[in-house]
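Listing 4. Sequential folding, example run.
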Amino acid sequence: MKILLHILFILFLTVFTQIGGIVYIIAVISIKKRSKNRQWKRFGIFAGLYLITTFMIVPNVAPIFGREKIKETAFLKAHSVFYKLANRNYVRLELNQSLNQIATEFETENNGIQMIYLDANFPFIDGFPLLPHLSHNDGKKVDVSFIYEDPNGNLTNKKPSISGYGVYEKPTEKENDQNMVCKQRGNWQYDFPKYLTLGKINQEIEFSEIGTRELANLILKQNSVGKLFIEPHLKSRLNLTNDKVRFHGCQAVRHDDHIHFQLK
């Protein structure tokens, strides 16, 4: 049973952080079975080694695999420390440059409003899946949050969920309900991220059509960007006519809680 639990924990850490499983194995074998308080010692070694690996070793090794950590600025921030702690904040150099340019231009037009990123990619190995995403596996993809506004109509950096995912800007009765279409086709997973919010917050804020449209158009203006995914009803509502705006397909999950874009 202990061996099975170790295996499951290794798999869990590998799936969510890529490097966690290897670090855990090192922590386990570094403590002798007869050692007193070995569980606490193991945890301490794991935590310390994981932090050192994540914040000191991985950023220096990732460029060998053509990726680098997203360079945060006053205008470009992770939604939470989880994305950095779990090594889900790596992209190719070209995407890193585009992110910073978009964030800078957006803040120039909207003083103090940041571009908030969510899941990007792991630091190593093309094709290694970043679950629950289907395509974040080559350093070329990134998710960013919508823009929201306060009750007075002013843009805000607040977001409606702890994770950054799962709070949808649903279609109106007159708009195309792609979620219903996909689920009727048997794609039950299409709105699964509603279970991944980790809690809804800032319920006073509302989706900003003006702010999100502006952000989307700045993304589309980048020559390096090949595709942008957003739910069909929001594509119509925001009048996004660029050919780069695509439907991601029913095999994925709905995109009316974030914008996904990727390099050519």
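-- end of first protein; second protein begins --
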Amino acid sequence: MSAAVDREVATLPRRGLPASEHRLLLGAGDLLVACAAGVVALALWSLTAGFPLQAGFIWSHAYWLMAAPLWAAALTRARHLRVAFSVSQTVNGVFRAALVLLVVYLAAYFYAPRQALPRLMVLHFLWQASLLTFAWRLVYIWVFTETSLRRRVVIVGAGRTGRATLEVIRQAGPRHTEVVGLIDERADPPAPSIDGLPVLGGPSDLRAIAGRLGASEIILSLDGEASGALVLALVGCQEDGVDVVRMATVYEQLLERVPVEHLESDWLFTSFVDAVSTRDASRIAKRLIDLVGAIAGLAILVLLWPVVALAIWLDSGRPILFSQARVGQAGRPFHLIKFRTMVRGAEAEGIAQWAAPDDPRVTRAGRWLRRARLDELPQVINIARGEMSLVGPRPERPEFVAELERQIPFYRTRLLVRPGLTGWAQVNYPYGDSSQDATVKLEYDLYYIKHRSLLFDAWIVVRTIGTILRLRGR
């Protein structure tokens, strides 16, 4: 780097906000906007309903302002930075929040006593909240994607893991982040550039480079152990106020997956085990919810059984149901129950096969059942038995589990929890028919296990309903 450039960048201040502060600002803004939407909705309601807009009217209906925290809660997923800094995904997040609250209100309106709940007020609120939230989010995106406020990032590691980090940030990183270069922990002297970004120096140069460039964050993306010089430099950067994060943390934040191929060997017994143990307190509540869901599912199964059974029988005869060995929690085998969607003798040679796109073994009725995910409905029986949960990693066949354990690191870790009727991998990734697909789905499964909660489960169920309504099953 030339002396002229050195003098130019030496004046750059450290800038940009960390993800936690962005979420805090977004949450506070969403709440304030929702309160303003509540006030505007009350004013519009008074005008359309013929009530005088007086202090007494507003005070007597102030309980409607309780809709503000509900709106802010419904936007929780939209505060993920990958969503918050994308206009299209922000629109999608606001629309989903409005739709969820509208469905909840309509359900309450249906069961409430006659004239107990008004109709216009909730429509006014949702409309105003959607418009004001979208306007506020556009301002936020415009302000924090300006060059002067972008978060400057240096990647420490120019090998395989460093390149993977750079690719993830380029593909999924929010627009408020700017990667200014890499530090090569291996080469001396370092390579001039990697994938179009300059290699700024080696470990001993890190602290000076971070200060000169006004770096806000250093992403540690090493292929091996950190050298003593690098450790000292990282400590110095932290003393200077620069955030130091690991590649796995950034990968999880941006993709909501765990980077299986870039994890340290002790990862399972460090961050993962600690995160899982803190969420075990909800297992009783989760089981109660599973039982309620199983009862509701059984009622739906009884209603749909005659139609589905008749369709299968007319198309390909008996049997109607199909039972197959799967691997459950802690490796315990069980028999999963489904509506039969393939021809009889689909595996006549006794060799387990992946389901392929446009699989010729799938019957005509089975194709529609798969698209609507109705073939999975009998698994509510497995949930009632305690063999499965409503939400969790999908159970695999013993033959596939044995093969994938040999090929994919940490694959057996997904057996720490009950398998699910639906899951985080299912709503984010299509059906897989290879070990590469299984690796990506494992990344989603491990993220779910690490971050699971009842609220996360509820979001996955909502996403699953959307998949079913769009007939996107296979």
